[in-house]
Design brief:
It is a single chain. By secondary structure, the chain is an alpha/beta fold. The chain has helices at about 20-30, 80-90, 110-120, 140-155, 175-185, 205-220, 250-260, 265-280, 300-305, and strands at about 5-15, 45-55, 60-70, 95-105, 125-130, 160-165, 190, 230-235, 240-250, 285-295. The protein folds into two domains: about 5-190, 3-Layer(aba) Sandwich (Rossmann fold), CATH 3.40.50; about 205-305, GMP Synthetase, Chain A, domain 3 (2-Layer Sandwich). The strands form two sheets. Strands 1, 2, 3, 4, 5, 6 and 7 form a seven-stranded mixed beta sheet that branches. Strand 5, helix 4 (about 140-155) and strand 6 (about 160-165) form a beta-alpha-beta unit. Helix 3 crosses helix 4 (about 140-155) and helix 6 (about 205-220) runs antiparallel to helix 8. The protein starts with 5 loop residues before the first strand and ends in a 6-residue tail after the last helix.
Length: about 300
């Protein structure tokens, strides 16, 4: 297909932690691309999900949307969080459209001031996704007013915001409306990926993320931020395919928690992770998970690179 034949482009998803960006990405693409958790700081990578649809404006021609899900922007600092913020802001570079995702069931937070300042200072079109309408609309007007007041204070004559769109990523309400709004605001261009691709996120990181999601689901809120998952080996020649993964913790006491009494916790985590990994392979797999102590891994740049947090 020649350049200019279809609508296509990169769409960055930005917002503070736990506003539902990963749930929205999975809902838009129709597949589990990014892990979902009620614990903030779940997404640690820049993850791309690919959606191919029919262009509603030109029947018979495809439109390709490449979503870039990013870590939530945080207001506190350490080596890992600083890196997450850098990834989130870097996702705007070269994108054609920005989805600014907010949780209208919560009030405006400090991170919102940072994000609004950032987005109102650039020229790329923005759609404000007013997410979680299924939980209430307590903060809806606050987010809209904050944007308008920022534009007014900066005396901007051209507002990059093209839509305010209330929806629920969890229930799917207005997801199709969002898809149409995105296609409408994309440029004409080539298809960047094959039509059967759902993500370009490397397989070993997808598997590591699945295991980490199960850790988030089963452990206390404080502990998952002290955990990292590395997929050390994938052997697809074996029957069934063999996957070896390491869970890194900061202290021996955390290792005991992850393993659980008589190994019950790690067994449960492994079983649930295997079920999701088998959906990627469409067949049985063998997942071998080890728990290891690595003190202060979040503050060591070399370790972060080895674990893949510098891949984006």
């Amino acid at each position: 297909m020649k350049q200019g034949d279809c609508k296509s482009g990169f769409v960055a998803m930005l917002g503070r932690p736990n506003v539902g960006k990963s749930t929205l990405l999975n809902s838009l693409v129709g597949n589990k691309i990014s892990i979902v958790s009620a614990v903030p700081q779940t997404t640690r990578y820049q993850i791309r999900g690919i959606l191919n649809v029919q262009n509603p404006q030109e029947k018979g021609k495809p439109a390709q949307i490449v979503f870039v899900d990013t870590p939530g922007i945080h207001s506190f600092k350490d080596t890992l969080v600083s890196h997450l913020n850098t990834i989130a802001k870097r996702s705007l570079e070269g994108c054609d459209l920005i989805l600014y995702v907010v949780d209208i069931s919560r009030r405006v937070g400090k991170e919102e001031l940072v994000i609004t300042e950032l987005l109102t200072s650039q020229k790329t079109k923005v759609i404000m996704v007013l997410n979680k309408i299924d939980l209430g609309k307590a903060g809806l007007n606050e987010y809209v007013n904050l944007w308008r007041e920022t534009i007014k204070r900066k005396k901007r004559y051209s507002d990059p915001l093209v839509h305010y769109l209330p929806l629920s990523a969890k229930t799917g309400k207005n997801i199709d409306v969002l898809k149409e709004a995105i296609v409408e605001n994309l440029p004409l261009g080539p298809l960047f990926y094959e039509l059967d691709m759902r993500t370009d996120f490397p397989l070993k990181f997808r598997i590591a993320d699945i295991i980490r999601e199960k850790l988030f689901l089963h452990l206390k809120k404080e502990l998952p931020h002290s955990l990292a998952v590395e997929v050390e080996e994938i052997d697809e020649e074996r029957i069934p395919p063999y996957i070896k993964a390491n869970i890194y913790v900061n202290r021996p006491s955390q290792k005991k928690i992850v393993i659980g009494q008589n190994g019950a916790m790690i067994k449960n985590i492994g079983q649930q992770a295997r079920q999701d990994i088998e959906k990627i392979y469409n067949r049985k797999v063998y997942v071998d998970i080890w728990v290891k102590v690595m003190e202060d891994w979040q503050r060591k740049t070399r370790i972060l690179k080895e674990l893949g947090y510098w891949w984006a």
